Amino acid sequence: MKLRNFLPLPALLPVSVLAGTVVYTDSQHLPENLSPDVVVVLLDEPERLQAKVFGQLPADPDLAAMQARQVMSSPQWQQKQQQLVTAYRQVVNAQELGIRKVPAVVFDDRDVVYGTTDVAQAQALRRQAGGGQ
């Protein structure tokens, strides 16, 4: 059972557009040569968090709903919910930017270099292509 339906849609809308350098990737392709100002977005983070928060839900819909309600009534739920909301916002932002595949290094929400998680290499490729100074 997927739990995406439990998050209200307005919570998924990005609050602000990320600027600067952002690496969109997944947990199988971790970035390299990061400076402290580079943001890393793992696009498989929502699924990973859901599995961590809710565990394996039973196939029976009633039992799954009961288990999910127990998790959502726990004192830690607010923090876990915020983590899920943040992870989904980042995925939505990637979709809005038109990210077609990962890994992708995005500069100033404008220039994108696909196929590398090495930020230094992506910067060099960007300069070579005439983008950014």
Structure, described:
- The chain has 133 residues and is α+β, with helices and mostly antiparallel strands.
- Helix content is 40%, strand content 13%.
- The chain has 4 helices and 4 strands; from the N terminus they run ββαααββα.
- A 4-stranded mixed β-sheet has the order 2-1-3-4, with helices on both faces.
- The protein starts with 20 loop residues before the first strand and ends in a 5-residue tail after the last helix.
- The model is unreliable at 1-18 (pLDDT under 50).
- This is TIGR03757 family integrating conjugative element protein.
- Pfam families: DUF1525.
- InterPro entries: Integr_conj_element_PFL4709.
- Keywords: Signal.
Could you list some keywords that capture this structure?
alpha+beta; disordered N terminus; signal; Integr_conj_element_PFL4709; TIGR03757 family integrating conjugative element protein
SSE diagram, text form:
Elements: E1 21-25, E2 39-42, H1 45-54, H2 61-72, H3 77-97, E3 104-107, E4 111-114, H4 119-128
Helix pairs in contact: 1-3
Organism: Rosenbergiella australiborealis
Keywords: Signal
Protein name: TIGR03757 family integrating conjugative element protein
Task: Give average pLDDT, whole number.
Answer: 85
Strand content: 5-15%
**In the residues, how many domains can be counted?**
1
Q: Please list the strands of the largest sheet in the order they lie side by side.
A: 2-1-3-4
Low-confidence stretches: 1-18
Helix content estimate:
25-40%
Largest sheet: 4 strands, mixed
Give the CA-CA distance, first to last residue. 47 Å
Secondary structure class reads alpha+beta
Looking at the structure, what is the overall shape? elongated
Instruction: Return Rg in Å.
Output: 17 Å
